[in-house]
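Reopening this ticket.

The earlier resolution said the output was attached, but the attachment link was broken on my side. Pasting everything inline this time so it's all in one place.
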Amino acid sequence: MHPSPSSPTPQAADAVVIGAGPVGLFQVFQLGLQGIAAHLVDALPHVGGQCAELYPDKPIYDIPGIPVCTGQGLVELLQRQIAPFAPTLHLGQQVHALAAQADGRILLTTTAGTALLARSVFIAAGVGAFVPRAIKAEGVEALAPGQLLYHPDAATATRAATGKRVVVHGGDEAAVQAALDCVDAAAQVLLLHRRDAFQAAPAPLAQLQALREAGRIQVVIGQITGVETAPDGTLQALALLDPQGQPQRQPLDLLLAYLGISPRLGPIADWGLAMDRKQLAVDTATFATSVPGIYAVGDINTYPGKRKLILCGFHEATLAAFAEAERQAGHKLPLEYTTSSERLQARLGVAPAR
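Inline output:
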């Protein structure tokens, strides 16, 4: 498989890590120690994967040396750890095609049109790509980019909302927080949900109530049935069905959707890799898949004795990075320690102890 004349020119990459959860982030770190620069791809618009999206505030007790931390806390620590290696991030996009090339490299293309030609690929996709649940209503898929955002982070949402009439769609803490984040920047903020009940911590719920009483946030109860656009395609209004079954029209400029996420194995099953019950089969000495240069770490892989723990994923990422470094070098490499190796310390940007 080679890119067609209309395809984007691929960027050369030492390694591409698919999945920016804890194991994917640690894979970037271990590759960095081996002198292998990484590109990091994730379907979500931010790093952290399942940890950041599903249990950011829940405690984790089984990370070595960290008696307790939250999911989000772990992600932040891992981001600090990989900072010296400055991975190139490709967020909010999913790898939809992957093919080995005649020269041994792997060509990847994403849903955003990014093309990467990599010496190695590390699949750390957990149980699949976490994809935001889409709004299923007539006309939604045809909206122009920037008019509908799924699960944007606070900075992106606030920037997009500036001066606009914003509808935040959802009923969980992410939706409530987005409405709170946008209230000072937007011309108008409406929080749309199927019922007047929201799942969030007491503090944001109290803020929401205070802003409702002050008239700064309006709560609208209903379900989206369609969208209304201008002749140039600009979003103008939502078609809603209220609790009494009556159609309503809600003008807006920007729609922010927080409807949760769901994991999907997606195109991984079509990449020609050996699989066992929707998981990638690997060699436990290297965590290589059936295709040379492609590795699988974390919950996406399977082997006898497999345990789906973050700790185990960290171990797998370490061995995979060593295996790829030795594959590229063509010989076995000596074991070095961050406590004493000047080369590793230089890569980390730290001065050795005197």
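Reporter confirms the inline version is readable. The helical segments are 22-33, 49-54, 71-82, 154-161, 173-182, 202-213, 310-329, 342-348. Confidence is low (pLDDT under 50) at residues 1-5.
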